[in-house]
Amino acid sequence: MKAITVKPGKVGVEIKDIELKQIKNKIKVRTISTGICGTDREIVYNELNFVKPEEGDYLILGHEALGIIEESIENSIFKEGDLVVPMVRRPGNCKLCKIGRQDYCLDGNFIEAGIRGKNGFMCEYFYEDEKYLVKINKSIQEYAVLVEPLKNVMKIVEVFNFLKNRVSWECDDSTYSCKGAWIFGTGPEGILISLVFKSLGLITTIVNRHPLPTNILDFLDINGIEFFNSSSDDWSKKLKDYPMDVAIDAAGTTEIFNQIIEHINNNGIIILFGTKGSGSIEKGEFITKIVDKNLSIAGSEDGSKLHYIQASNYLENYAPKQNIKNLITGIYKPEDIWILKEKPKDEIKSIIKWS
Ligand SMILES: [Zn+2]
User: Fold this and answer.
1) Terminus-to-terminus CA distance in the chain, angstroms?
2) What per-residue confidence (pLDDT) applies to 279?
3) Quick one: average pLDDT of 278-303?
4) Distance from the CA of 100 to the center of ligand 1, in angstroms?
5) 186 — pLDDT class (breaks 50, 70, 90)
6) Model confidence, pTM
7) What average pLDDT does this structure show over 127-140?
8) Which of 73, 138, 265, 348 is spaced 20 to 30 Å from 48 by Cα?
9) How far is the CA of 89 from the centre of ligand 1 (A)?
10) Rg of the chain (C-alpha set)
11) The CATH number of the domain where 106 resides is what?
12) Do the Cβ atoms of 206 and 227 come closer than 8 Å?
């Protein structure tokens, strides 16, 4: 079968022919589509130091996928023809991994498909333990490849709901209509976060240091999400109508963190998701602000099986309303491996179609 592979430790990506052995008690899944994200391109450019093969010297790339069951196993809840999304992270042996919360792994001894120690899904078929498959409704087939990135957002919402219990957060009509969410970063993850916070009823603003292509601006506009250019727009003017009560960073620069601490309202919640951290954080006055404003700051990584299910339910409910199919800006063939090296200018989410 065709598979897109990398050699961990080396720059480059290739398409090659690999045969997988049938594995007992595992379900055969035929790949329908795989999504491409920043992590895949970082792996291709050898920018991540934790990338590991499953065996040999190559790794099949790809952790965002949708597949169809080709051969099930006895007594399985899955039958041939069912649509499934495979989970990325697989548990190690710690206490939290053992209860399915490998997203909160205590010791880092988990593996991740297409990233560390396990082949991914950019291939024509794969064998999978049914425990790590999430059943998908056929009505969302067109964009179900977004379930994987969206499950990270569902975990962010879980973190948000936990932190806002510190103090009464509701507006005087019991909703969040007077509260504002600011999302930093306009990649697919940032856009998905802004859609979900908009659906929770918050005034939602998304931020980048650069102007956005028209297709992204139009998408945000029809969804009632405000765009703020942090290099050229006026902060204080914008904050009057678009309050910052929760700030979610999907970009990861320390410059952004400094801006958030400066502008967020009292009792604000900051959730950090982006990891491209560089630069340093100003101390002193900065710490005083965190204390004086009663800020809650949390990191959030990955998500559990429950979050995959919530992501799938979200797409069933909101994809038609929020035109989520328009997030897929390019559909490519497995042979188009250049797409793993170059990001098209108007890209939100590029996908590879396998069958
Ligand atoms: Zn663990």
Assistant:
1) 12
2) 65
3) 86
4) 9
5) very high
6) 0.96
7) 97
8) 348
9) 10
10) 21
11) 3.90.180.10
12) yes
Q: Please give the distance, rounded to the nearest whole angstrom, from the Cα atom of residue 139 to the centre of ligand 1.
A: 34
CATH of the domain at 255: 3.40.50.720
Give the confidence band of 354 by pLDDT, cuts at 50, 70, 90. very high
The closest of 69, 62, 54 to 33, measured between CA atoms, is 62
Q: Are residues 20 and 107 in the same domain?
A: yes
Range of the domain at 36: 2-136+323-353
Tell me how far the alpha carbon of residue 153 lies from the centroid of ligand 1, in angstroms.
21
Identify whether residues 171 and 31 lie together within a single domain. no
- Count Cα atoms within 13 angstroms, Cβ side, for 153: 26
Whether residue 42 is contained in a domain is answered as yes
Q: Residue 61 falls within a domain, yes or no?
A: yes
How many A from CA of 96 to the centre of ligand 1?
6
- Given a cut of 70, is residue 278 above it in pLDDT? no
Same domain, yes or no, for 180 and 96? Answer: no
How many angstroms separate the alpha carbon of residue 231 from the centre of ligand 1?
Answer: 41
Distance, CA 242 to ligand 1 centroid (Å)?
Answer: 39
Lowest mean pLDDT among 193-202, 228-237, 268-277, 332-341: 268-277
Q: From the CA of 99, how far away is ligand 1's center (Å)?
A: 10
Judge if 162 and 287 occupy the same domain: yes
110 & 210 share domain: no
How many Å lie between the centroid of ligand 1 and the Cα of residue 49? 19
* 336 shares a domain with 219: no
Find all residues with CB under 8 Å of 236, minimum gap 6, and list them: none
Nearest Cα neighbor of 123 from 199, 30, 222 is 30
Chain-centroid distance of CA 111 in Å reads: 17
Number of domains in the chain: 2
Residue 174 lies in a domain: yes
Q: How far is the CA of 304 from the centre of ligand 1 (A)?
A: 12
Amino acid type, 156? I
Domain C-terminal end among 299, 314, 334: 299
